[in-house]
Amino acid sequence: MRLLTVNVVEKLIPGPKETGFTAIDKRPQLGRIRVRPLGLEGDRVCDTANHGGPDLALYAYADEDAKWWAQELGRDIPTGLFGENLRTEGLDVNGALLGEVWRIGAEVEVMVRAPRIPCITFQHRMQLPRWVKRFHQAGRPGAYLKVLREGTIGAGDPIEIVSRPDHEVTVAHMFGEQDPGKLRAMLDSGVDLMGEIRENAQRIAARGE
Where are the alpha helices (DSSP H) in the chain? Predict the structure, then answer.
């Protein structure tokens, strides 16, 4: 398991929201990039009401899923096209458990916090009809990460799963099926969850009680 590329915003481009511009245009960087609590050094967030913050500091997407999309769409999916900061190889990003901790390189540690929820900016970026629905139905959202330990990362760095919590709710599960029993077990496990995920899990788990 390794990091293929580290991507930061190339330039701000016009977007569909009232913020005017979007930082979704990410490109791979040479050398080592510093990881801070709010993300990569040199990166930007325009729509701070809906993106960014400590729980959504980094967005990781698996190269295996990008290749799947390339075949589905009949086009290349270059690294950074989906706005991901990290393109990984050999790591089941969608199969990661919420609360799972990864070490990237020798220094950086991150925690899996949530699946990526597609928005109108992503739709605008891809310029494909019904892209948001199509992306959701595919069940390959990628994961948002919280930075637990700062440091530097670079292309080729190994990725190690440091710890996994005692529940069964993966990134893909939270994005799709959302079984009430599994969500209740996750809540009861005591795993550290971001507020929105906890609230959603509590609401869905209550339906099964």
Answer: 63-73, 120-126, 131-138, 171-175, 180-188, 195-207
Q: Check: CB of residue 50 under 8 Å from CB of residue 144.
A: no
pTM of the model: 0.94
Burial of 127 (0-12, 13-18, 19+ CB in 10 A): exposed
Please give the Cα distance from 31 to 29 (Å, whole number): 7
Please give the Cα distance from 91 to 62 (Å, whole number).
7
Which domains are present in the chain? 2-175 (2.40.33.20)
Tokens of 167: 């529940």
Instruction: State phi, psi for 12 to the nearest 5 degrees.
Output: -75, 135
Average pLDDT over residues 90-115: 98
Is residue 131 predicted with pLDDT exceeding 80? yes
102: β partners:
110, 161
Q: Of 87, 85, 53, which Cα lies nearest the Cα of 69?
A: 87
